[in-house]
Amino acid sequence: MAAIVVRIFLISILCLIGLASAAQSVIRMPSDRTAGETDSFCNSWRLSVETNNAGLWSTPEGCLGYRVDYFTGVQYASDLTVVASDSIAFARSVTPAGDGKDGWVFDVDETLLSNLPFYEKFGYSAESFNEELWNEWVNSTAAEALPESLGLYRELKELGFTVFILTGRDEFQRNATTANLLAAGFRDWEKLILRGKSDRGKRAVVYKSEKRQELVDQGYRIHGNSGDQWSDLLGYAMAVRSFKYPNPLYYIA
């Protein structure tokens, strides 16, 4: 009996070692992988980022070029189109009450406005974030609308939704943000909410939850919420449906 137990134990250990080796071979791609394997791995990495499986992440070695191709090619625009289409389909399924209380919340950066020209200068986030240069970019009011978001925004207004814009930008950037949104074609939002002094130091998910709760307390029904970060969408006072925009550039908790 003892010999049988020992044999089973050894077999179990060998199986575990084999599984561990297999798992390692899946997670850590060989350094000499082919171009096709690299594309496949980087596609899987992006999926992990967008589903929040990766958590706080950095770009894997070998995927920087992939990320550049993603934004400059057709895939990014295609992904945005699908997000906007899904959002419109849901919005059309809602019948606004006509009291002005049916709301939709939008983030700004990488949701309504694209900052790709800014990040392109720094290797699409390959270099460290520079807050001073970022503030200069915001003040330039040069960010353009994501066309898919502009179409969604206008559709929501026609359907009778009240639109709120909730951004992690600071209050001192209100004038520049307002000017940029107007120049990009966004009009007639109900309220533009930015971080005030009391919001400094708060995690994004806490800050945005608090601001959504204030809207709920005012009687608004938040049907939809659009943002490129999970912290735009999760927490409490959540929308009936949340729509995650693609963004393998940066992560904000």
List keywords for this structure.
single chain, 253 residues, alpha/beta, Rossmann fold, two-stranded antiparallel sheet, 7 strands
Layout of secondary structure:
Layout: H1 2-27, H2 35-50, H3 64-72, H4 75-93, E1 102-106, E2 113-114, H5 116-120, H6 131-140, E3 144-145, H7 147-159, E4 162-170, H8 174-184, E5 191-195, H9 204-217, E6 221-227, H10 230-233, E7 241-244
Parallel strand pairs: 1-4, 1-6, 4-5, 6-7
Antiparallel strand pairs: 2-3
Helix pairs in contact: 4-7
Describe the structure.
Keywords: Glycoprotein, Signal, Storage protein. One of its GO terms (molecular function) is nutrient reservoir activity. Residues 1-22 form the signal peptide. This protein has helices at 2-27, 35-50, 64-72, 75-93, 116-120, 131-140, 147-159, 174-184, 204-217, 230-233; strands at 102-106, 113-114, 144-145, 162-170, 191-195, 221-227, 241-244. With 253 residues, the protein is an alpha/beta fold. It has a single domain, classed as Rossmann fold (3-Layer(aba) Sandwich). Strands 5-4-1-6-7 form a five-stranded parallel β-sheet, with helices on both faces. The longest helix has 26 residues, at 2-27. It is globular, with a radius of gyration of 22 Å. Mean pLDDT is 87; it is low at 1-32.
